[in-house]
Amino acid sequence: MTRLSVRLAFSSIALFTAFSLASIRAQTVALTDARVIDGTGRAPVEQATIVISNGRIEAVGKSVKIPSGAMRVNLSGKTIMPGIINAHGHLNADKSNRPPRDKLIGQLRVYADYGVTTVFVLGTGPNDLEETLKLRDEQEHAATLDRARVYAAGPSLRYLKTAEEARTGVDRFADAKVDFIKMHIFGNEKDTPPPVYRALIEEAHKRGLRVAAHLYYYRDARGLLDAGVDVIAHSVRDRDVDAPLIADIKKRDVGYIPTLTRDLAQFVYESTPAFFSDPFFLRHADFYRDQITELTDPAHQEKVRNSEEAQTIKEAIKQASRNLKTLSDSGVSIAMGTDTGVNLGQWQGYFEHVEMEMMVQAGLTPMQSLVAATGGAAHVWRVDQKLGTLQRGRQADLLVLNANPLSDIKNTRQIHSVWINGRQMPPATTHTN
Questions:
Q1: CB neighbours (10 Å) of residue 389?
Q2: CB within 8 A of 204, min separation 6: which ones?
Q3: Distance in angstroms (rounded) separating the CA atoms of residues 291 and 432
C-alpha cells in the first residue's frame, strides 16, 4: 500500500469513527449546506439540508428546521445523491472456499464501498438462494446495515419444454419467497417456446411476482412483451426498436435495463484496458486479483481478439446504445444495471460507474443517467416508495460526492462517504477470490 493510500485509509477510518460515535449519541443527523440531487430528475437544490432519523429521511430542502440535539455534519461544497441501485446484478463472483454467507456479505460490502447501496440479483448461484434471502430478510428489520441491500430471484429459468414445467419452476421459487422471477431467452431453437414462457409469466403474476427476461433479439422482445413480461433485462441489439414496440413497452410501463457494460466485457479484454490503472478500480484490486491476472494474460487477450462472438458484440453495443437513446427519448422507464458479479471481467461496484458513463456516451444527459441509477431503477422494481430518491419517508441510503456529477458523470467516482440506513459505511475490507 502506498503512503497516500495509507493516509487516505486512516483518514476515512477516522472520519467514519467520528461520525459513528456521534450517531450513537444522537439518532437524528442533519447533513447541511450540500448540493442535493434527489433522484427524481428535478433540478438540484443548492445549500440544502437533509435530516435523517431512525434510518429514514425526515426532511430535505433549502429551508429545513434542524431538530434540537441533532448531530450536524457540514457538507459545504459536496453533492449528495441517492445511493446507486444496480437493477441487474449478481453475487456469484467470489469463488473462494469461504462460507457462502461470508462470500455474499463480502460482495455486498464491495458494492457498498463503491456507492452501490442496493442490488437486484437477477439469478442467484445454484447454492446461494437461501442465504441471499436470509440477508434480504435481515435487512428489513435491521437498525443498521454494513452492506448493500439485496433483493433476489432464484436461478434463471431456461430451456423449459412444457407449461407445467414452467409453472412448477415459478412455484418453487415463489414458495421460497423470492422477490421476482428471472428467465432466459437466447434466440435459438432450444429456447423456451412462447406458449411456455407465457404460462411462466402468467403463473408468476398469479403469485404476485414480476418477471425479468434475458434477451438479445427484437423478435424475442416482441414475443415477451406480448406474453406480459415486466422487465427487459438487457438491450435489444440486433436492430432498431420501432414505434409499435415502444408503444407496448410504455403501455404497461415495462422496465428496460441496457447493461452496456455486460457487452463491453465481451471484447474490451482483447488488450489491457486503461481502467486497470484507475485508482478507483484498484481500490479493490485484492478482490479482483485472480481475474486481473487472467485478463492480462497475452494468450487470453489473443483469444478475445480472435473470438467471432466478441467482435460481433463490439458492433452490437453500438446498436444497443442507439436503442437506449431512442427509448429514453420516448419516455420508457430506464434502469441502470450491469450484470456484474457473475462473469469474468464484470466488476462489482466499479462497472456501475462505467455503466452510467456509457449511458451518457449513448446520448443521455448526466441527470438522466443518475435517475436511471436511482429513482428510475427503484421505479422499475417497484420499490420507489422506500428507495431511490431523497424524499421524506425514504430510507436514508445516499452517496456524498466531492464533485458535481451533473457537470461530469465521472464525478460519481469522487466518493466522500456512503450512507446506508442513515449511517456512514466504514471502508470495506476484501478477500482475494
A1: 26
A2: 170, 174, 180, 181, 210, 211
A3: 10
Could you give the CA distance from residue 404 to residue 412 in angstroms, rounded to a whole number?
8
- Judge contact between 206 and 170, C-beta under 8 A: no
- Can you tell me the distance from the alpha carbon of 39 to that of 336, in angstroms, rounded to the nearest whole number? 13
Count of C-beta atoms within a 10 Å radius of residue 322: 18
Centre a 10 Å sphere on the Cβ of residue 194 and count the other Cβ atoms it contains. 14
Number of domains comprising the chain: 2
Would you give the DSSP letter of residue 334? B
What pLDDT digit, counting tens, does each position of 315-345 carry?
999 999 999 999 999 999 999 999 999 999 9
Confirm whether 58 is domain-assigned.
yes
Q: Are 274 and 362 in the same domain? A: yes
Here the cell at position 143 is: 437498525
Same domain, 147 and 1: no
The type of residue at 114 is Y
DSSP helix/strand/coil, 420: strand
- Other C-beta atoms closer than 10 Å to the C-beta of 41 total 16
Q: How far apart are CA 129 and CA 378, in angstroms?
A: 22
Tens of pLDDT along 127-147?
Answer: 899 999 999 999 998 888 999
pTM over 0.85: yes
Residue 242 lies in a domain: yes
Within its chain, how far is the Cα of 7 from the centroid?
A: 30
Q: Which parts of 365-414 fold into alpha helices (H)?
A: 366-372, 375-380
Using an 8 Å Cβ cutoff, are 58 and 51 in contact? yes
Q: Which three cell numbers mark 350?
A: 466499479
